[in-house]
Amino acid sequence: MSHIRKGDEVIVITGRDKGRRGVVLRMHSDDRLVVEGVNVVKKHQRPNPGAGVSGGIIQKEMPIHISNVMLYNPVTKKGDRVGVRYLDDTAGKRKVRYFKSNGEVVDV
Questions:
Q1: Cα within 13 Å of Cα(85), Cβ side
Q2: Domains along the sequence of the chain with CATH
Q3: I want to staple 63 with a disulfide (CB 3.0 to 4.6 A). Which of 27, 32, 49, 106 is the partner?
Q4: What angle do CA 62, 67, 73 make, to 5 degrees?
Q5: pTM here?
């Protein structure tokens, strides 16, 4: 189980965009992810009329390493470490993520 998933709100802890918050748009690979509004670069794009792509300078979000972000905890208003524990439900044991600082469950 990954500690950070698509749709999670994360905060950047290192690099050029340190302190910025955003939502994870997609997981690029096992160790890289794309965060909304973070690591935005300008890319010179050549036009491709066959694919309907216009040319020019576009802004694009690039992937960053998963170690450079932490899951945002709305209670403490900071980045927080995440652990995994099992909860006893009616259907058996269920695996959930929780914040290490206050023990609150992330997945409900």
A1: 13
A2: 9-46+54-99 (2.30.30.30)
A3: 32
A4: 100
A5: 0.82
